[in-house]
Specification:
Length: about 190
């Protein structure tokens, strides 16, 4: 199977949400949209919960998830990874929904969900093929006992236990935090009426 397109999408995955965000801001400006301070705050709280979950999850990867090539030194099945295979992507979903709540426009949800489905329908199978090749039966067992997006109530008990490094996890998210902080300042200045 040709991995050039999935590898390209994976390598540039940070730019897709930024482009989507720019499109949403341009649309809102062109359509003379506004939002309330209450919706901005509600969206910011959802974004903060998504980012908190991302930072928590990133701690179990020791901040090594911000790479341009799929790689892994170990199969993480600890912390949130014991309940769901893609906790960082679940955090991204919460962040995106929080942005949509803040914008308070129907088209924001439609565009975000389309972008999210496009991006992760390419990235996740690409990552899973890598993990299957690298970790073989250990990954197959983990995959069979955890879901992609919906957490299970009972965590996976197999695999090596990983101690989190929250400092590295938080440091790896600083880029994301700066972009989101600037985004909400921009939303406040442009759209709150």
């Amino acid at each position: 199977m040709d991995n050039r397109i999935p590898a390209f999408v994976f390598r540039h995955r940070r730019f897709v949400p930024i482009a989507t965000l720019m499109l949403l801001v341009i649309l809102k400006i062109c359509l003379h949209g506004t939002t309330s301070l209450l919706m901005l705050i509600a969206g910011a709280l959802i974004v903060a919960s998504g980012m908190g979950f991302r930072i928590y999850s990133a701690g179990y990867l020791w901040g090594r998830h911000t790479v341009t090539e799929v790689e892994s030194d170990f199969l993480c099945a600890s912390g949130p990874f014991a309940y769901i295979r893609n906790p960082l992507y679940l955090g991204n979903f919460a962040v995106g929904m929080g942005v949509c709540v803040s914008l308070n426009e129907w088209y924001a949800y439609a565009i975000f969900i389309a972008e999210y489905a496009f991006l992760y329908s390419i990235i996740i199978p690409y990552e899973e093929r890598f993990l299957e090749e690298k970790f073989g039966d250990a990954y197959a067992e983990y995959k069979a006992r955890t879901r992609r997006f919906l957490p299970r109530l009972k965590g996976y008990k197999g695999g090596a236990r990983v101690s989190p490094n929250y400092k590295s996890g938080a440091a790896s998210e600083k880029y994301y935090l700066v972009i989101l902080g600037m985004t909400f300042i921009l939303f406040y200045l442009l759209f709150v009426r």
